[in-house]
Fold:
Amino acid sequence: MQVAGQVRDIRKSRHLSQRQLAGRMQVPRTYISKIENGKAIPTLGSLERLAAALEVDICQLVRDARSCREEEVAAILSDPFLAEIAALLPHLDSLHRTLVSSQMRDMATGRRRTA
Structure:
């Protein structure tokens, strides 16, 4: 279940224990554990309280893999440099893609190529 994974991932990214999140929601810690393990399905009210306790929008708790991917792509393309590169990639064949990727990797890691 997506909600279970989202709750766990967001809780961990906020460096909260299940006990701390339960305290914020004023529910038993076992309730958080059941949600994260998919053994309890939170009601709409519980989802609202979870979102508030995690300081996120409720949509972040119920989004699916496709919407996550769309958000990641939008975040990448919001960088003008990456957007420009992304627009050019379809025009490259596999050899040129490999060469560009290798060159960028070398530049990023500080390695120099010798002739």
